[in-house]
Structure formats: C-alpha cells, structure tokens
C-alpha cells in the first residue's frame, strides 16, 4: 500500500530551538492514524510541515507523492484542522461555507450543507456564538467538504467535554469510511486513539518509538510476570520495552513475534494504553514523566 506521508531526517528549527529533528516516518494510506506523544514531541510541527504551512530546515517530506504546499493541486489534496479548530467568530456558518467554496476548487457544497443540517446547526448563527463542540464540528465540516485525500487533525478535541468529543470522533470515523479518507489524528488522549484509530505512531523527541497497525502491535506485545530475572537473560527475540521488579518478581512488557514457551512466565495481553505508556516511559527514563492524559 502506498504511503500518504514520508519523512526522512526531517527537521524544523525556530532560531536556536529545534521543534522537530531527525524525524523519519512512513505512513500508509487507508488508515486513521493516531499520532501520540508528550507535549513538545514535535507533533504539531510535523503536521504543519505536512500541510505546507511550514518548510523544513533539514531533511525532506513528501505527502501523497508531492511536496507539501507545492501549488493549488497539492494543497487541494490535504485538509488540516488545527488544534484550536479555527473559525471566524464574526462570520456565520453559512458565510464559512461560502468562504470554503471560494477557496477550494474541489468544494462539495452539498456535503457541507448536509452535515450542517444533520448536526442541527442554524446556518445563520455566528461562529462566535457556537459551543466548543459545535465550532469543532464546523471546522471538521470545512475540512471534509474540501474533499481531501488526506485529513490532518491536530488535537482537535482536546478542549471538548466527553460528549462533544465522542460526537466529533464518531463523525470523523463515518466520514473516513464514506469518503475513503486517510487521516492522521494527533492526540494526547489515549481513549481517543483506542476508540478511533487503527494505526499507531508514538513520537517522542522527534523519533518514532513504535509504528504499525493497532491489531498487529497488540498481538506482538505481551506482559510477562514471574520470578525475578535479569532482562539480559531473556531470549534475543524478546525485545524488552519496559521492566519492573520487586525483591522476588519481575514484570516485563516485551515485543516478539515468536511463541513464549517458558513455563516460569505468566503471559497476559496488554491494552493499547499499556503499550503507549510503556514506550513513552522508556523514552522518558532520563527525563521527567511525560504528560499524557488517560480520559474516558
């Protein structure tokens, strides 16, 4: 399957500070991708580079086979909803749709109006009078009506209440199926990734810690509990992601494609939350604990 986004040694610097450095990624088409990482990992910078809003300082990036922002044709292929779900407070919903039609040659006005009607929103209502969830849905409508091949979402529901968040994500999943969209959803909420995404990327300090289809990743990771043991004594094909010990017991989260036959171990499955946190904690071993929220 072709890649919708490829990055090789990608970096972006602001003055003396690197917001993203040495990032290498290969995101396949046809997925809702969860891009997860602590604050400062470079998620927003990566998405802005992919959308053509920023240019790389080092390395390269291609999106849908082209250079981000390289002309109207390339821009039309990519939709981007920023973290603050930007809308214009003084414009009505109808005026937002008119603006979208003027700015996007592939605009699907019927889709936009049908979504607004289905959401029960008054087209005459000013965006500044909408709730946070309604503004997020308006921003999503603008992104979808553009009819992109790839939709980039930068933590679009982080500030929403649980019900509005669930409704937004449900709308996203339905649209991804109906429009055969590829989606990259940046989030620091594990529950959103669990509910929505079928492909996972954990990004820490610009480096990909793990990437793959969620089902395959869960099948390849196991929790081992048994008598205390040095990790170095585990088989070479059991990659240790995390380890904890008491005086008599060891618990490991390992990645392996091979069966685990050692009878000393109690083997159990891991949740997506367990997997994500294990990779984040591994990468943050010499730093303070990363800020990742687990919300239901």
TrEMBL record:
GO terms for molecular function: ATP binding; ATP hydrolysis activity. This is ABC-2 type transport system ATP-binding protein. It comes from Thermomonospora echinospora. It holds the Pfam family ABC_tran. Transmembrane segments: none annotated. Keywords: ATP-binding, Nucleotide-binding, Transport. InterPro entries: AAA+_ATPase, ABC_transporter-like_ATP-bd, ABC_Transporter_VariousFunc, P-loop_NTPase. It comes from the Bacteria. Residues 5-230 form the ABC transporter domain.
